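I am still getting used to backbone structure tokens and would like to learn alongside you. To get us started, please write out a protein record for me. Once you have written the record down, we can walk along the chain together.
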Amino acid sequence: MNTHRFIKSGLPILIGASVMLSLSMGIRQSLGVFMAPVTRDIGISVSEFTLAIAVQNLSWGFLQPFVGAWAGKHGYRQLMMFGSLLYVIGLVLLASAHGLLAVLIGAGFLIGLSLSCTGSAMAMAVATRSVTPERRSAILGVVTAAGSIGALIAAPIGQTLSQEFGWRFGVLGFVVLSLFLIPASWYGSKIDAIALPPNNAFDNKNPGAVALQALRHPPFAVMTLAYFVCGMQLVFLTTHLPTYLEICGLDPMLSAKALGMIGGFNAMGSLFFGWAGGRYNKMLLLGMIYILRSIGLAVYFYSAPTPDTTLVFAAYIGFLWLGVAPLVSGSISETFGLRWQAMLSGIAFMSHQLGSFLGAFGGGVIFDALGSYNLALQIGVIVGLAAGVVQCIFAVAWPKNPPLILSTSA
């Protein structure tokens, strides 16, 4: 792809995919700033609010493979536009909620379904198809980095509006932000007009056969299982960090600053891991991310938090936040090609979202039962260290195999 052609066709697609990912992930990651005021105002418990976040993560995860398979057959435009509209509807329903059911449907199922159409799997698939193979890992890092900016915008807006005018106005601020998903999805979905590269061994197979072969491929299976830990740790933080800081007597605005700091450093981390993934063992890099995250969680939560240490922790964990996305997506595209990338990313993401369910809902249940997050944190650190070590051992022990797209017959 020459430079002129890329600027004319590829660049608008990448910008659209990046803005779509930034808004969908940034708003979703910032919903935790409303947990305390929502639970007080409409009379639901912390565990009930986190149940809605858990429903969101499960619906997102379990629908993602089917959405990805549909995109592989029919294209991206209809799905991405549909998901953008659902996001707006889900937030409107949350803003008007007076009980648990509306929270479950709005913040839970509808936003979860929307994310399966506008989130990382779809944005990464679009970005991968729009550039040449030698640029893919770096470009995936760039899109992931751009996708992290949403938290820098959404969290402060939501927290400020909530403090000044009430949580419903904060959610309405998110509604306004979500409207920009619609034009972003339109531009990103122009990838449908760009033809795929020449067929590989998987392009002409049905999605079920491709999924089964992927699950039987040991590197993919290990990566998928370890992805569970990623979801558990990250969603626990985005959901429960605001409440934890409030318990510690710190300024509620600090949670928004911390989430914004995570978003900012996530951009740098995503760029770094996108670059590194093109040069080093992706599996080994994934394992190191899980280990380093777990160490950071242990150090921060087992010391007395202050505003300064909270922001330092947010910067550290932010650098390691979504660096997994270019590594996972890059590994899948290298091994299985482009047509079914969104579907296979969705299968891996199901594991991630099971971890997200445990991180959001399990953390809330433990807090309601014990009055603290200590047990939840211990589980998160131990499981994270174990998954990271296993992934690193496997990365070293398993020979760097040639991509299946080059070695599998049609």
Q: What stands out?
A: The longest helix spans residues 218-247. The domain at 3-192+200-407 is CATH 1.20.1250.20 (Growth Hormone; Chain: A;). Confidence is low (pLDDT under 50) at residues 406-410. The chain has one domain: 3-192+200-407.
